[in-house]
């Protein structure tokens, strides 16, 4: 799975292929989630190509966390986002920071092998 490095990127938009690879899911799942969650609304070009912003990807990260990692149903995820989106957003941000720290530590460990 190829993660998007938001900290070192100046890009405004990402393709559906890049976002799908970032989460390790099929592009069709992202299109499906667009129909199920009102918060996921990428910009579309005249040709219909989706362009995801960092904010769009953060919304997808929330849905991914609730559905894929916590195992909630789509309805359960919708209810959770309605009732406490801010709390869930903070949880996902903490998880992302911890994953970043883990990677940095792994890279440091490789240097000393």
Rg (C-alpha, Å)? 15 Å
Strand order of the largest sheet: 1-2
Tally the helices.
4
User: Which spans have pLDDT < 50 for at least 5 consecutive residues?
Assistant: none
Number of domains: 1
- CATH topology: the name is Multidrug-efflux Transporter Regulator, Chain: A, Domain 2
Q: Mind telling me the CATH class?
A: Mainly Alpha
Structural class: mainly alpha
Name a few traits of the molecule.
single chain; 113 residues; mainly alpha; Multidrug-efflux Transporter Regulator, Chain: A, Domain 2; 2 strands
Protein architecture, described:
14% of the residues are buried. It contains four helices and two strands. Helix 3 (54-69) crosses helix 4. The mean pLDDT is 88. A two-stranded antiparallel sheet has the order 1-2. Helix content is 64%, strand content 4%. The chain has one domain: Multidrug-efflux Transporter Regulator, Chain: A, Domain 2 (Orthogonal Bundle), CATH 1.10.1660. The protein has helices spanning 16-23, 27-36, 54-69, 74-111; strands at residues 43-44, 50-51. The protein is mainly alpha-helical.
């Amino acid at each position: 799975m190829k993660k998007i490095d938001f900290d070192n990127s100046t890009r405004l938009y990402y393709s559906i292929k890049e976002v799908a690879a970032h989460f390790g899911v099929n592009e069709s799942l992202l299109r499906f989630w667009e129909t199920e969650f009102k918060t996921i609304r990428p910009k579309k070009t005249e040709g219909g190509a989706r362009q995801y912003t960092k904010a769009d990807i953060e919304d997808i990260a929330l849905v991914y966390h609730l559905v894929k990692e916590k195992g909630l149903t789509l309805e359960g995820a919708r209810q959770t986002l309605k009732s406490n989106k801010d709390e869930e957003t903070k949880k996902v941000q903490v998880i992302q920071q911890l994953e970043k720290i883990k990677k940095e530590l792994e890279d440091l460990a490789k240097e000393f092998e």
